[in-house]
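Researcher: Here's my situation. A collaborator sent me these components and asked whether they could plausibly form a single complex. I don't have experimental data yet, so a predicted model of the whole assembly would be a useful starting point for our discussion.
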Amino acid sequence: MIESDDFVQALQDIGFNFFTGVPDSLLGGIYATLLERRLFTPSVREDEAVAMAAGAYMAGKVPAVLMQNSGLGTSLNTLISLNLIYRQPCLLIVSWRGFEGKDAPEHLVMGQTMTQLLDTVRIPHRALSEQTAADDFRWVAQTFMNARIPLALLIKQGVVKGIQP
Amino acid sequence: MRPEEGTIQSRARAIQAVLGLLTDQPVIICNGFPSREAFKLTDRPTHFYMIGSMGVAAAIGLGVALSKPNKKVVVLDGDGNVLMGMGTLATVGALKPKNFIHVVLDNEVYGSTGNQPTLSRIVRLDQVAKAAGYVHVERVREREDLVYEFKAMLGNDGPSFLLVKVSEQAEDVGRVLHEPAEITRRFMKAIE
């Protein structure tokens, strides 16, 4: 399992310096680390967070947005009618609730269709794993700089350490 | 002319008054007529014209304001937009960026889609902003009051909220002619 401290450090090493979003239990450790490092700007909705990140990007920051995958639904219009057409990159750190159908009912449809949804709107994505972490972070850095559109790093349960071990 | 009787200015006139008091401050302008009218009145590279993503103008402005604390950031918003992203009033009120000025052009209708009524003729958005924690909140109708209050907001710490009651009148304006990616590029360069 990846320590949340190492996860946040890896992103800071790439240059990410503006973090916002809405919490999820799978992202609890990352969220706590960001708060501890005073790096996190709170937000009340995922579309708001994505738009704040767009503003921060245009003001010179390198932004990332945390969200549960349900938040992809909430932020979809902002992602496609702001970020994608205005060429504003943003790293989406998305928890993969409902992965392989093992979750509460409200997560099952998004858990099953999330990668198709991302493909449909042409948002590049990749699931983080401990074995490929170095490669995954390299992919994040390169895609962010080159594509200048949002990209999603998907976080499954048990990949990054939460608040409770 | 509703709900208050008496003289009320057009949105374009209000936009002109605000832009006339600005020089190189970043301005985020919400989608629909406000962006199109502002573009026709005064086109500056410091303008970020939205053409979609309704409801998030203030959130974009907040991201800019938090990242550029030494620049006053102005958001030109509409009542329909504020109602759609009302949670952002709470985010602004809680984070309290001193350099954030939120101007809401309130004509009480969705003007870009055929003047269907919004809820702002019932819900006082200025009172919502006050309750959410904006430091200065004013509600104006006349042009001279708009100029007076906006100047004060430019000179003082915020976050500030200026509700401007405007008429439903829309100018005969075309679309914003810059490509979206070009709007991003030149805005970034202009506020560097």
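Model: Some features of this prediction you could bring to your collaborator: The radius of gyration of chain B is 15 Å. Chain B has eight helices and eight strands.
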